[in-house]
Amino acid sequence: MATSTRSRAAQPRASYRCSECGWTTTKWVGRCGECQAWGSVAEAGGAPAGRTVAAPVSTPAVPIGAVSAEQAVHHGSGVPELDRVLGGGLVPGAAVLLAGEPGVGKSTLLLEVAARTAARDQRTLYVTGEESASQVRLRADRTDAVHDQLYLAAETDLGAILTHIEEVRPRLVVVDSVQTVGAAGIEGVPGGVTQVREVAAALVRVAKTRGVTVVLVGHVTKDGSIAGPRVLEHLVDVVLHFEGESGSRFRMVRAIKNRFGPVDEVGCFDLGPEGIRAVADPTGIFVERHHGRVPGTCVAVTMEGRRPLLAEVQSLVAQAGERPRRTTSGIDGSRLAMVLAVLQQHCGVDLSQRDVFASTVGGAKITEPAADLALAIALASSHFMTSPPTGLVAMGEIGLSGELRRVRDVQQRLAEAARLGFEIALVPAEVGKGGRQRIVDGMQVVEVSHVRRALEFLNPTRSFRVIEGG
In the list 81, 88, 99, 153, which could disulfide-bond 278, CB 3.0-4.6 Å? Predict the structure, then answer.
């Protein structure tokens, strides 16, 4: 009896491990107690490993100055806007993850990159796991992406993909998508945490050992984050997010992680029936040129990464019913509520009993606080039915007391507005220098310290006073 008790006590207890963060527990749970991820806890296989002994090295260690950096030189992808985000182009041996919502244009963009690479007489392998080869060929015919050096394979098995890489010996490999590929001998279905981790690790190893650039297409969850284990983003060198509204042809590629370049760059594209094309100057999409002065409009200058973009803000203030409505499109609703409160409290512009609609032109999405001043001008202009001067741009963050706070890269924003022909710019003033006017690149720049001063500049006949208690 005592012997059986000791044998049971000597048996090792089962251990469960989270594939996302590595948290361990002695019993299975549906949700990780550390990172709160669902379905990521699985039984850890095998007994604890013993002490690791020394093993032969693959290459000897050398001084860092003796390591050649030629293999990490960027090579253009043929798509300038994508090269801008990548920091110059694709790097041999790099693994790139491109994620985005369904239908946003990921496959179309990468097929264009593959065709441009093949056109430079470099073998390219495009592996599709979501479509048949004939479906990809139809898209290639439509977008003029057929080339002799572009090889196409429809595979969902990791071993078969590795065989294709051995036989074709490409310079660029595109896998669409990593969630559809399965590895034999690994538990789980394709797209599961274990499978995605193994498939991505194998393809990254191929990229590093053969000097091949590997681009993986990734899915996103309903909240917009990249599907699969978090380790997927750690394995690759570059993580790009492809985004765009379903009702707009405009698309943007944004770098989330980049070991070879900046992470504050964006690339702009136009997705149409004939394919996808780079948009080097996207301001024309977001700014509507009016023949005359129009109430309720103002142009804001925002920064997308290191690129200044001009976007037109429109507003409509109308008579409300029983319950006033606040509707936005492309503008953060909380910023609209804050600007309305500041206008009421510090400028005497009471819109609490009015319907307020605010939107942007061309499907632009503005999240930067620098557009607060343009939004306030558009709201006041629509309320009083007075038109801002022609050729006006405004930039500035509004504080809760109505003061205008300075924004970054003011000179770069002004240079872009002047290049596009705008004549007047309202900018936040430096401390104690409100009301100063100067000429920058042929454009009149007016510095204002408070949103009330900006409204008085636009409408000198009206006095915007603080209401009682403000």
Answer: 81
